[in-house]
Amino acid sequence: MVRVGTLPFRLLAAQYGADITYGEEIIDHKLLKCERRVNEYIGSTDFVEKGTDSVVFRTCHQERNHVVFQMGTSDAVRALTAAKMVCKDVAAIDINMGCPKSFSVSGGMGAALLSKPELIHDILTMLKRNLDVPVTCKIRLLKSSQDTVELARRIEKTGYPVNCVLSLVRIPLINCRKVVDRPRDPAKWGEIADIVAALSIPVIANGDVFEYDDFQRIKTAAGASSVMAARGALWNASIFSSQGKLHWEDVKREYVRKSIFWENNVKSTKHTLKEMIMHYSSLELPEGKAIIKSETLADIAKLYEEEKYYQFVNENRFLVNGSR
Ligand SMILES: Cc1cc2nc3c(=O)[nH]c(=O)nc-3n(C[C@H](O)[C@H](O)[C@H](O)COP(=O)(O)O)c2cc1C
């Protein structure tokens, strides 16, 4: 999730039980302007825009085998060059073929790819042939089930490992929404089931997972290999816990601590907190207003009475490094 799926949020989801986490979409052009830096102070691996301190992608060894780097692209060679920069630090590379936003579509990326099966084929083939990590793609339902099945079959033909354990990682990820749908529209699980039935590769179903039980319900209804949650996780990342959800205020506090620990981009932290709060109350209330006013992680720490934690982390970086 853009501005949400940064390292603290991914680790939060993983802590509550998510097996695999996807990073926010990063455009290939942007990654190509970066250099890889090991950040010993924090214990992370950063991809930083050259000549600046702007972290475009931050990851760490704890999530090395669970995190998928999601990329926006419209060109096979560029996608490969960008993917090669990060592939040793992540578990898999995903190509976003579902984003309907104009900045994506006008650049020939995201959902624009859905009408260019030849280009999809080129990108996936190029990545699969030249990378040692698995490649997945996230698509949306097309106008008819038949169109979607046709597209998914072309994706399937780009090849996947015969070994079924490995095949887990080359998953075309079917997002059960049509290109014109917005996230609040009802999802159509029957259509996913039709597509899954027509394919021999694993499919992750995505859409309208708001409770832990939804994972199994949707997995069964769609016949999918696994299930992905976005908004349900954003509103309460403990949705992944088989023990039941924690109170969202506790989850939010844990997110704040992780943001502090990993020195998350404050804009990302603010955005994520705002999205969480908007679901339960209003940004017009004092907490929302204070988030909007915050300029640094120290401000956020103060707002959530985590100043001692903030101070402790910053004074003991080398002692606590890697402990979370
Ligand atoms: C705040 C937000 C950011 C998102 N960013 C991305 C993204 O970067 N890449 C992507 O493939 N989908 C993105 N999506 C779409 C979700 O991955 C997902 O497909 C959609 O929200 C439907 O799933 P849900 O019902 O579980 O929310 C985003 C959704 C939200 C709400």
TrEMBL record:
KW tRNA processing (keyword) present: yes
Alphabetized UniProt keyword annotations: Flavoprotein, FMN, Nucleotide-binding, Oxidoreductase, tRNA processing
A single Gene Ontology CC term: cytoplasm
Alphabetized GO MF terms: flavin adenine dinucleotide binding; tRNA dihydrouridine synthase activity
Family: Belongs to the dus family.
Organismal lineage: Eukaryota, Viridiplantae, Streptophyta, Embryophyta, Tracheophyta
Record bears the keyword Oxidoreductase: yes
EC class name: oxidoreductase
Residue positions binding FMN: 70, 138, 230-231
EC assignment: 1.3.1.-
Residue stretches making up the DUS-like FMN-binding domain: 1-281
Pfam family, one: Dus
Superkingdom of source: Eukaryota
Cofactor(s) needed for function: FMN
Function recorded in the entry: Catalyzes the synthesis of dihydrouridine, a modified base found in the D-loop of most tRNAs.
List of catalytic residues: 99 (proton donor)
Protein name: tRNA-dihydrouridine synthase
